[in-house]
Design brief:
This protein has 13 helices and no strands. By secondary structure, it is mostly helical.
Length: about 325
Amino acid sequence: MYKQPSIFFSIKGEGALIMKRYMLKRLGMSIITLWAIITITFILMKAVPGNPFRQEGKMPQSVYENLQRKYGLDRPYHEQYFMYLKRVVKGDFGDSMKSRVETVNDMIERGFPVSARIGGQALIIALIFGPALGAFAALYQNKWPDYLSMIVAIIGISVPSFIMGTVLIQFIARNVSWIPIGGWGTWQHTILPSLALALMPLANIARLMRSSMLEVLGQDYIKTAKSKGISQAIVILKHAVRNAILPVISVLGTLISNLLVGSFVIEKIFGIPGLGMFFVKSINNRDYTLIMGTTIFYAIILIAMLFLVDIAYMFIDPRIKLTKEGR
């Protein structure tokens, strides 16, 4: 009798030791990756021509030298690098070169919850409707529901989020009085930016889910379940969907990070005071410490999400086996 693979499995004994080694290996790789990002970001900032203080018009030489000394810009590059690396290890991204009242950490603490709320709502929308749209398309393969679902997916992939945001402003906000066009304050202000940000990941998930669902529906255990007289709904929900969803889980780390990073332009369009606003201003003002701080902060989120999803996937997918070398 063929038995459907279980979506969960336990790791005991030698398997647990191998898993720990694998986790330590992945953690080490994550730390090295983060160090590389910090180093490359620092080098790129130093390679950019100009100086953030020379842009403020005619500045007395004494004031300029004091600012250079305050931020350590008068020191050799290798000393600046190790000083900055030491601060980052402590979780300190330094002082903003433009703001006189807030540090980079203060700006991140103020802006990131706003960006996280928009990204979180977009993620929920994508995870609810993306798998459902993909599964629906697979169940009606080569029929009009399949074509309609894929048209929606193609539009979501082809149309950038900032254009979708503009379209939503033109065709929804102007005709629905209770949905604000921009600004921040109430939950209504999050509707349009969340929808604009969710469409592309929703479309990607739908396409991935459709392909995975078609593959699962052709497996032997699905045929066996049908031959036993199990209802169509149970076969689809209990046997097909929960196995077809595995590839979607594998991309969650990148998906979450892309939603947060992708909110930069959306926040600008809708006038949202998120971290994207600080990032855009930092580029225009050549605020090196803020540029590096926000870049490294998002890199930490991306690496952490990839690490957690990679580890979680080892527990969720029983088909993945680890050798003694942890590969």
